[in-house]
Amino acid sequence: MTSCLNRAINTTSIVVYTNTPANSILFDANNTATGVSVQTASLHYTIYASHEVILSAGAFQSPQLLMLSGINPQETLATYNIPVLADLPGVGQNLWDQAYYAAENYTSNQTGPLTSVGAFIGFEKLPASYRQNLSASARERLDTEFADDWPEIEYLVEYAFSGYNTDYTAVDPNNGYNYATISAALVASLSRGNVTIRSSDAIDLPVINPDWLTDPADVELAVLAFKGVREIWEYMKRTTDGEEYFAGTAEVQSDKEILEYIRRSLIQVWHAAGTCKMGKAEDGMAVVDSKSKVFGVRKLRVIDASVFPVLPPGHRQATMYGLPEKIAEDILIGD
Fold this sequence. Notes:
Layout: H1 2-11, E1 22-27, E2 33-40, E3 43-48, E4 53-55, H2 58-68, H3 74-78, E5 100-108, E6 119-124, H4 128-131, H5 136-145, E7 153-158, H6 168-171, E8 178-186, E9 194-196, E10 207-209, H7 216-234, E11 240-246, H8 255-265, E12 300-302, H9 317-332
Parallel strand pairs: 4-12
Antiparallel strand pairs: 1-2, 2-3, 5-8, 5-11, 6-7, 7-8, 9-10
Helix pairs in contact: 5-7, 7-8
């Protein structure tokens, strides 16, 4: 992305305002976006748009700026005395991110892929031997909501000790052994979070509620994925030294104990998306159309991962590059 920006700076008249956060999007009496209210240090001013405004603040702050600009349900905006410009209940809803937890840590003999710098990743649909342990309702929902070839679990092999995913330096055993971790991420999650505002001031960060593991099917899938990782380690006995170091088979064995461990160590994969989702006009939760134009107003587009209607099961970088390329072409042809 830096290379794209550098090229634009060198070949176009683009101007980049650094250290200049946006406060809100400005509209005229016809609900047409005319510019953006911004702030550099203590200086407040307006940057006017010659054609249209493109919002690209990410899955957390794109919905925040829409809300601060009057695009959200009345009940949310009324709390902070923000006039409603367009009533779009989907703004800030449908938050996806792939919940991720360090499933195991073993001491390694310092050879083989577990000691490689970086990480190995792999994806799979829950194997039949594990899938039969899902409840009928969980199987039905996963089969209905996702395509047949949509993986449900991502495995990440890392050459480090993760613990509860808190302060990695502080929790490292630091006992002379080399540790490896196989983590699991749910890439077919059915739980959805949300983003909202805490004030009418953009300087106040939005309230982010990931709502992981609130869907019962996600809970079942997470527990089975943890057991699957333990089975992987069983196949790797020749490349490990000693028994499971963390979380420990004696301490974490029952489904209840596994779930408690997962909830304690759960973090994001940094793939947040979906909070200004793309969809058809008749979809009451859609925020933008197929050209990324915001419903209910004119000359405003949102172009970032917040418009993903679904979060792809893999890492989203290529998808994120493809989206602006597609919308840029729409803009160039005047659509």
